[in-house]
Amino acid sequence: MAFLSLFTQSPSYGKDAAALKIAVAANFRVVAEQIGDRFADSTGVPVIISSASTGVLAAQMRRGAPFDLLLAADRARPQALIDDESSPGPAQCYAVGSLVLLGASSLHEALSDPSKSIAVANPRSAPYGAAAMAVLAREEFAAASERRVVRGSNVQQAMQFYTSGGVDLALVARSLSPNSGITVPPEWHPRIEQYAVLNARSNNAQSAQAFLDYLTGLNAVPVLASFGYRPCS
C-alpha cells in the first residue's frame, strides 16, 4: 500500500543509531518535528516523521507499515490496534487538542451563516474532522445546515483549502494556527485526547518508548503549550 505521507528527517547522529520511525497525525506533524529534533540532539537517535490522518496511519500500521510508534489524534484507533495485537499497548495519552475557527471575527455569526463555506478534515478518518462536525451540528447553527462543507483528507489539507481561498472558513486544529483564529469552546465537541501506541512489529521499541517518555515529560511542555495543546490530566 502506498504511504500517503510527508517525510521529515533529522540529521544523522552516529552510524550506530537506528532511525526512529514515527507515524504522526496531521495536526501534530510540526510539533513532532520540533520535539523529534530535540530528542535527536539529546539522544543521538535520528527521527523520521511520517504524517497523514489518524485513520490512514492506523490502517497502514495494521497492514505492516514499518513505523515504530503511532501518535494518533484519538484513543479509539490506538485501542483497536491493541485489541487486534498490532500494538503491545498500553495506549498513552500525550496531549489534548483544541479547535480553532479561521476566517471570522465572530464565532456565532460565522457558524450561523449558510453563505459561508467551510473546510474540515474528513470526520471518518480524522478526529479533528469529527470534532468539527460535532460543532457544526449544534442546534444554534441549524440555520446554516445547508452550507457548503469541504472535507480534506486530513486537517492539514482542510487548512490548505482555506489558505488557498477555496473556502470562507476552516475548523482546524489550533496547532495549525497558534496565533490567529477563534478558539472553539472545548465543551462544544468531544474532548480531543491524543494517544500513542508502539508497533508490535517494531525492532526499535526501546527508542520508541524513550521518545514517548520525552514527549510526555517536562522538556516537551513548552513546545506543546506553544501550539495550543493541553496536558492530559
Automatic annotation (TrEMBL):
Keywords: Metal-binding, Signal. It comes from Congregibacter variabilis. It comes from the Bacteria. This is Molybdate ABC transporter substrate-binding protein. Belongs to the bacterial solute-binding protein ModA family. The keyword Hydrolase does not apply. PANTHER family: MOLYBDATE-BINDING PERIPLASMIC PROTEIN (PTHR30632), TUNGSTATE_MOLYBDATE_CHROMATE-BINDING PROTEIN MODA (PTHR30632:SF14).
